[in-house]
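Researcher: For the record, we're logging two predictions in this thread. I'll number them. Prediction 1 follows.
Model: Prediction 1, sequence and structure:
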Amino acid sequence: MLANGIAYNRFDVSGLPPQQQLLAYWEQLGHIIEVVPSREQVRQSFICINNRYDIGEFRISDTYTDHVVIERTVARISRDNVRGIGFTIFLDGAAHLATTLARKREYPVCGGSVLATDFEQPIRLQRQACRYITLVVPANLLRHVFSDPWAIHGRALEPSRPATRLIVERARTLVENLRYMPFEDAHRRLAGLIELIADAFGEEAGLSGSKRAVGRALMFEYTRRYVRANLHGYELSPDSVVESLGLSRSTIYRLFEHEGGLGAFIRHLRLRAAADELVRFPNVPIKDVGYSVGFKSASDFTRAFRRAYEMTPQEMRLNDYRYPHAEWR
């Protein structure tokens, strides 16, 4: 605890033997994510310096690490209670790559970019050696812009945007001065930074910044509510949504372009619901779990689940996942 009342923790692996440094980093983050190393990486030295500050309901960290692949899997998500929205502000580095697993979409990011992740959805991040700031906030703080915070997952702010440059500069200044600020001042500045980030992502998604964006935001909220309310029905499809809500196909496409289309969004919601039920109800047959979330056959469910999460429903239930892209585990 700092003298100003801010909870502070520093984590540095430099005092450990080289072969223990990456594993120590893994253990530090193990309650949230998996680290996916190669055999060679484990044998080598690894740099990780993390300064974490807890300020009321907010958490902000200033970190430097070597190159690493990290992943938050659906198996972990369905077994823990870690929730919220994370913003990674890359201060340097190049050619980072984020992959949202269920949507099979890749998002290249570089120094000066801001990446948003929803802890309730799986993601894989190949991060080059860099310094970055991580900000974790409750999802409800974004609902004035994103009525469904799931929609922010995987979005990124480009470094060429003036708002992004302002966010990066304010975040850098904040973490470098937190230990000298009064608690109330630090909390106020952090809340202001979050507001700035939310507005920037809202504009990037076309949900704020103009009268037209307000109308789009209303359609965005209405459509997602309808899909969630009818998720378990076999008849739910892009065609049924278009017909029931009276929206044009072009409007639907624009609303769900980030998700890969409305069909992909429906499938993603069904698979996430199924993953939770596989863990919550271990004695229910897998085929019945698939039927309960709207899949029409057991084979369709298993095939879609494996394609999205790189594991079968049975492996997910048994927590028996092996990383096919890792050399050592």
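Researcher: Logged. Prediction 2.
Model: Prediction 2, sequence and structure:
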Amino acid sequence: MEARIDEQQAVIARLEAELAHSRKVFDRASEAAQIGVWECELADSSLRWTDVVYDIFELPRGSALDRGRTLECYPQATREALERIRSKAIEDRSGFCLDAEIVTMRGNRRWIRITASVECVDGEPVRIFGMKQDITAEKTAALRLRTMAEFDSLTGLANRSRFQAVIGGVAAEGVEAEGVAASAVGAVMLIDLDRFKDVNDDLGHIVGDDCLKEVGRRLALLRSRSDCVARIGGDEFAVVFGPQTAHAAALRLGAAVVRLMERPILVAGRRIHIGASVGIAFSQDGRGDALYGHADTALYAAKAAGRGTVRVFDGKVGDAVSPSGKGESRG
């Protein structure tokens, strides 16, 4: 009998050692992957976290947890979305997955991926549990890739791809552009720098790049008044206005751009004078897919009129008018 008891105790000890080793491996893997496990009792909202979740929220490991305090780490919109899908999952006895931004207890911003499943007893939900993973690096990399894909590295403005997505409402991959509707365009303004080629030819491309950076800073002032400000070519820029922008307001902004570009640019102790011509096309039906060509017609007329001017497409291919109504033929 004693031998059998000793044998059973040896088996139990071996199993306990294996379990402890498994937990140690799991903890190390979870920490390496920045994945922690959490549970919430639905009866009293009490929480249980593994160490990695404490680390993600920058709370001391093992400290007392309060769900209400934890929810304060989420921005209001995210908190409302989390509560909504959590309630739905509990109602449906299912689960959910959500990427959410948090502000840790130390004030640092992080992105986490929450996965959850609802556990039921006799058909009634009793607890919700799952994993939380720190995906800040993943989100940062995705944002960097999006920035590279949609923004001009020299000026910081949107690039041609983003501009085309905005005026067409469809990205190059054929999916709807984020936050963009095909009927959301009121006007397109094209801006072409005058005498910029002379700067590159006479002073070099480094000075030319510095000039473009300053142009980008000046045009960035239009961001609050428009849907998109982009560099779409070497010295060509574009501004997209929503349908709420009045024609008169767009014309005033076009004239303001001309005046803004008349100011000298200081580069390496030099005062460089360039200038800009502006062409504007207004949408008749709220769609922007044809406006680029119309605005280009108006821009051509502005340059033909002596540069440093604003011209508006009048609705007929090949013609544009000045804001005062004087016609300009593309010739």
